[in-house]
Amino acid sequence: MTTGEGARGEASGKVILLGEHAVVHGVPAIAVGIPGGATACVREAIDGGSRLQVHGPPPGPSERELQDMQRGWEAIVESCGSPAPLRGVVELRIPPRAGLGSSAAMAVALCRAVHAHIGSAPDTIRLVRDASAWERVFHGNPSGIDVAAAVLGGAIRFDRASGARSLPIGCALPLCIGVSGRRAPTRTMVELFAGQLQERGARAAQVLESFGELVERAERALSDGDLEALGAAMNGNQGLLASMGVSTDALDALCEEARAVGALGAKLSGAGGGGSVIALAPGCEAEVLRVWRRRGVEAMAVTVGPGR
Ligand code: MEV
Fold first, then answer.
1. Whose CA, among 77, 121, 206, 235, lies 20 to 30 Å from 252?
2. Residue ranges of the domains in the chain?
3. What distance in Å separates the CA atoms of residue 217 and residue 226, rounded to the nearest whole number?
4. 173-304, superfamily in CATH?
5. Could you tell which of 12, 20, 103 is best to mutate to test the pocket of ligand 1, judged by most ligand atoms within 8 Å of the CB?
């Protein structure tokens, strides 16, 4: 399926290496883009208002999700400042609703195509703003990390106060990504994590600090190209996420299996409750993919950077 004739845009999906959930509460997080997450094509609508067509891997969007996407599309057309209604076609190339930033990738690809169509050259801040108009339809109060990763690609550090910046990485990151097949709405998981924080009362700040310390360690490890230290930080992050109730027995088991065949680090990535797992697996990518696929998990290997 192709997106057809017209102005084009594309954007990355993402995996969060460290810091999901805590990032909603102001702690920094690190994400890496998955190139080619979505492509889009835009042309003037000949009749009626702005309409959106969506293609992608199964499971396709429900009727309700299609309605939300149509609303998101209208919000993008308005935010980008198009003087006329537009017809948009977007093709998703990564699994949807799996914690891989599919929604943000579609939004950013569409925004780039709209700007190409109207002949404007948006900077990063403008693109983030336009794509966030779509994201708010789906997620209520997203941290913004998914959109930042979709815009910038490569490795990024993100926090709510200062936004995103690209991170230098000292060596290539051989990652395995597994899609567990179970889905939990991001909004529900974000509320669950927030509830757990609230239950901890005065200790909540300390919990968030522990997440933040691991992110700092991972950032140093990334720039030094120290994969062992990065893996250890990822494992520590998984322990913290599990203690906050956003992992599941199945995700924990996938992490343990990856480590047992040599992965230096493994954790859930994204909102948890299902969704995706990632493993840092230098030299043992094939083994990790094999053990995950044996459990019916859709799994792929990607190598990120260096060079950004
Ligand atoms: C979702 O990809 C990451 C969360 O931290 C939510 C967010 O940052 O908006 C769980």
1. 206
2. 2-167, 173-304
3. 10
4. GHMP kinase, C-terminal domain (3.30.70.890)
5. 20
Of all atoms in ligand 1, which is nearest to the CA of residue 139? 9
Please pick, among 47, 123, 130, 146, the residue that the annotation labels catalytic.
Answer: 146
Q: Which fold has domain 2-167?
A: Ribosomal Protein S5; domain 2 (3.30.230)
User: Which spans in 201-280 are helix H?
Assistant: 204-224, 227-243, 249-260
Separation of first and last alpha carbons in the chain: 31
Instruction: In whole angstroms, give the CA distance from residue 69 to residue 65.
Output: 6
- Is the pTM higher than 0.70? The answer reads yes
- Give the 3-state secondary structure of residue 60: coil
pLDDT > 70? residue 1: no
Tell me the helices (H) and strands (E) count for the chain, helix number first. 9, 10
Cα–Cα dist 232/47, whole Å: 56
- Between the CA of 247 and the centroid of ligand 1 the distance, in Å, is 14
C-alpha distances (whole Å) from 301 to each of 41, 87, 155, 275, 286 are: 28, 34, 16, 16, 8
Residues written for the chain: 308
Tens digits of residue pLDDT in 144-189: 999 999 999 999 999 999 999 999 999 999 999 999 988 888 889 9
- The predicted-structure confidence for 9-48, as pLDDT tens digits, reads as follows 999 999 999 999 999 999 999 999 998 999 999 999 988 8
The C-alpha atoms of residue 50 and residue 255 are separated, in whole angstroms, by 44
Among protein residues, the one whose CA lies closest to atom 2 of ligand 1: 270
Write the residue with the smallest CA distance to atom 1 of ligand 1: 270
Catalytic: 252?
no
Q: What's the 178 CA to ligand 1 centre distance in angstroms? A: 18
E strands, the chain, in order: 7-18, 29-44, 51-55, 86-92, 155-159, 163-166, 173-179, 265-269, 276-280, 298-304
Q: Which atom of ligand 1 is nearest to the CA of 14?
A: 2
